[in-house]
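Example record used in the benchmark description.
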Amino acid sequence: MTSRGEHRYPKFLRVPQIPDDAWLSQPQAARQLGIAVFRIGALIACGHLTPAENSAGRAGVTITSVQAEKTWRDSATYRAKTLRLLKDTIGFF
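Model output (structure tokens):
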């Protein structure tokens, strides 16, 4: 059993293990993006963040994908954000 904050991805997902200095936990990623932690899962599911495990096997995301998402959010127009939301919502169903 893992303690709170030590989530792991299921084995069947085959998430790559990356060095600790290239990895962020999902709560850390949420803080950097200024969003709720549950949104991180949605961004992973939609392909906007890249899931990864650190050397201890903890679930998280790559720093590179968080930086790319932050850059996109800072520079995207309202129209682009709306279209992305629509596309992600349709893709979810």
